Amino acid sequence: MSETVFGKIIAGEIPTDKLYEDDDCICIKDISPQAPTHVLLIPKKAIPRLVDATAEDQAMLGRLMLKAGDIARMLGVDEAFRLVVNNGAGAGQTVFHLHLHILANKRFEEGDGLGL
Ligand code: 5GP
Questions:
Q1: What is the pLDDT of residue 1?
Q2: How far is CA 88 from CA 2, 9, 92, 95, 98, in A?
Q3: Is residue 68 in some structural domain?
Q4: 22, 50, 69, 86: which has the fewest C-beta neighbours closer than 10 Å?
Q5: Which residue segment(s) compose the domain that 21 sits in?
Q6: Cα 21 to chain centroid, rounded
């Protein structure tokens, strides 16, 4: 569980600003925010990348998506936020423990569907 920085945060080995925690996941502020609101929703199960998830993870991943909506509501950004999962170094993934970026309060340009 503690090979990555997120594993260490989940194990309580590294202190962090925790916004939410339950049996499945934790939500923390990103240390290097790319938008005025930038939090990370991290499953406690250490799945390295989205493509490493299996059918066994289906229910947990579903709960994670619903939780992303709850967190957006909790942060007051549920009318406009972006959910990002980087899968693999080529896509910008730097921490190989699956996580969802929740980004908001940034002016997302019309037509820049994938831009950050
Ligand atoms: P990735 O690039 O893997 O999709 O996203 C990793 C994210 O984790 C980056 O946005 C980075 O700023 C964030 N991050 C890396 N180390 C830490 C840390 O120790 N604490 C927190 N809160 N965020 C971190």
A1: 45
A2: 19, 21, 7, 9, 10
A3: yes
A4: 22
A5: 5-104
A6: 13
**Residue 99 falls in the annotated catalytic set:** yes
pLDDT digits (tens, 9 = 90+) for 8-61: 999 999 999 899 999 999 999 999 999 999 999 999 999 999 999 999 999 999
CATH of the domain at 45: 3.30.428.10
Whether residue 55 lies inside any domain: the answer is: yes
Give per-residue pLDDT as tens, 71-102: 999 999 999 999 999 999 999 999 999 999 99
Choose the residue to mutate in 10, 31, 96 for probing ligand 1, maximizing ligand atoms within 8 Å of C-beta.
Answer: 31
pLDDT of res. 101: 98
Q: Could you tell me if the CB of 37 is within 6 A of ligand 1?
A: no
- Domain membership flag for residue 113: no
CA nearest ligand 1 atom 1, residue: 93
Q: Within a domain: residue 42?
A: yes
Q: To test the ligand 1 pocket, which listed residue (32, 49, 84, 87) has its Cβ within 8 A of the most ligand atoms?
A: 32
Domain count, the chain: 1
